[in-house]
Fold this sequence. Notes:
By secondary structure, the protein is an alpha/beta fold. The chain is 34% helix and 23% strand.
Amino acid sequence: MSVLITNIGELVTNQPGERAGAAEFAAAAGAALVIEEGLVAWTGLASQAPAADQVVDAGGRAVLPGFVDSHAHLVFAGERGAEFAARMAGQPYQAGGIRSTVAATRDATDDQLRANLRKLAAEMLAQGITTFECKSGYGLTVPDEARSVAIAAEFTPEVTYLGAHVVPPEFDADRAGYVDLVCGAMLDACAPHAKWVDVFCERGAFGRDEAAAVLAAGQAAGLQARVHANQLGSGPGVQLATAVGAASADHCTHLEDADVDALASSDTVATLLPGVEFSTRQPYPDARRLLDAGATVALATDCNPGSCFSSSMAWCIALAVREMHMTTQEAVWAATAGGARALRRTDVGHLGVGARADLVMLEAPSHAYLAYRPGVPLVAGFWLNGEGVIEGIQAGS
Ligand SMILES: [Zn+2]
């Protein structure tokens, strides 16, 4: 069955190749789009649209590619609201806070972890995130990491093995022993369920040589690399990410000129997570410096119970525009096509012919409203793989 969505006020297509560089945001007014068998079959002017089995009148609303959230930590138990409140009262964020979530996650049953992930995935979809990445990293034992990636794989193909999140307390006196475990038995148990290997390369987490060992072992097991890099201070994370051909270096809050150059001259996406800086009250990354240098920039939520417990990509877009001086076009591109690049996906993040029909319809005439009306729920409906969930919008045939 084909579906024609017509009378679209602004259709954001992000069709690859229309324009070069990070500014390849592309949109059309008075547009229409046809979905067939789960894919985008046609886009163009509404006045030239072909016939279809079903017609949806968008009523002048904007339609965008579904958001692609390339960085989220959704397999966990417990919550850290009190830690957030204490931080807002003046205590600094430290990577070791992860340990409280590790303890709660180890204590949880599979069904409790699954139910929490299901709830968060539904929350994301309702806010227009149609593709999300999900990391392990709160188990930090072989069985707890293995069940984390297995449960994540029930909800998304973008599963990341993050055994190297922090060194768990039982290995405080034997860091090397933990890195060996992450590169050995834990990797063997997790690799069958994962696409990605990630490491938190940061003071207080893993140093350069430890992180390099983790990524090399993961790549040897068939996983692709991504890196938590340069969040809390300058460090080797970005250089390591580009050197190993990682798909993405995530955070990029504290960059030296050489880090910017490395990102601009590589295929490694700079994934910015402004919700973290908001929630930890830290300076935002310098998005303009990266964009002006020619780096590819993605925006992601980093939804996790410690440093940013938000599943709202719209809010990240608003922060990127208001606080990081990205244009509304750059921010929406980064939250859709940029996220797809960070996951090395060509089928999502744009609405070119042949793309997956993952669409978001806004209760607004243009993408700019995502930043212009911050905090307001603007998703009027969405299509996931061509299946529509739209409320209060007339569909006829
Ligand atoms: Zn993260």
